[in-house]
Write a structure and sequence with these properties.
Helix content is 53%, strand content 4%. It has 160 residues and is mainly α. It has one domain. Strands 1-2 form a two-stranded antiparallel ribbon. The radius of gyration is 18 Å and the shape is globular.
C-alpha cells in the first residue's frame, strides 16, 4: 500500500511547488547542524509539521542570517538574461515536478522517517487536506469577483 505524499502548506495545493519545497527542506536537513532544526525539518517532510513554523525557529533564522546576504548579493550581480534563463528553468522544473517526483528522490516520508516521528496512518497528511485525514480543501470551478479583484491587483499593483 502506498503512503500518500504530503502537500506542504506553503505550496497552496500545488504538488510541483510542494515537491520543490521538499527538495529544499532535504538540503537544509542534510546540512543542518542543529538537532532541533533537523527534527523540525524531518517532521515537515513527513507531513506532521508546518513549513510556516520555520520562521519561528531560531536554528532556521541562523541559517538564513548566514546564507541570505551572499544569495542576495549574487542575485543582484546577475544579468537580466541570466535571471530570465533561471526563471524559465525553474518553470520547466516545476512543470516536471507536477507530473511526477524526481526519480532520484524517494518519497519524503520514507526517506526521512525516524524512530522519534509518529508513523500511524492518522498522523500522515492526505493530499488535498490541511490536517491529517480531515478538512478537505475544495476550490471552486469558476472565479468569483474576489478572485478577479485580487488577480487585477496582482497584475497592476495595489497603488494604481
Amino acid at each position: 500500500m502506498s503512503i500518500p505524499e504530503p502537500i506542504h502548506d506553503l505550496a497552496r495545493g500545488d504538488i510541483g511547488v510542494s515537491r520543490q519545497l521538499s527538495r529544499a527542506l532535504r538540503v537544509l536537513m542534510d546540512t543542518a547542524t542543529d538537532p532541533q532544526l533537523k527534527n523540525q525539518l524531518r517532521g515537515i517532510l513527513a507531513g506532521t509539521g508546518s513549513a510556516r513554523d520555520l520562521m519561528h525557529s531560531e536554528g532556521f533564522n541562523q541559517v538564513l542570517d548566514r546564507t541570505m546576504p551572499d544569495a542576495m548579493r549574487h542575485f543582484a550581480e546577475m544579468s537580466d538574461e541570466e535571471r530570465q534563463r533561471l526563471a524559465e528553468q525553474g518553470e520547466a522544473d516545476l512543470a516536471r515536478l507536477r507530473i511526477a517526483p524526481p526519480a532520484d528522490e524517494s518519497h519524503p516520508s520514507t526517506s526521512t522517517s525516524s524512530p522519534s516521528m509518529p508513523s500511524t496512518p492518522a498522523d500522515r497528511v492526505v493530499p488535498g487536506t490541511r490536517k491529517p485525514n480531515r478538512e478537505r480543501i475544495v476550490t471552486p470551478d469558476e472565479d468569483d469577483e474576489d478572485d478577479a479583484y485580487f488577480r487585477e491587483r496582482q497584475q497592476r499593483g495595489w497603488l494604481r
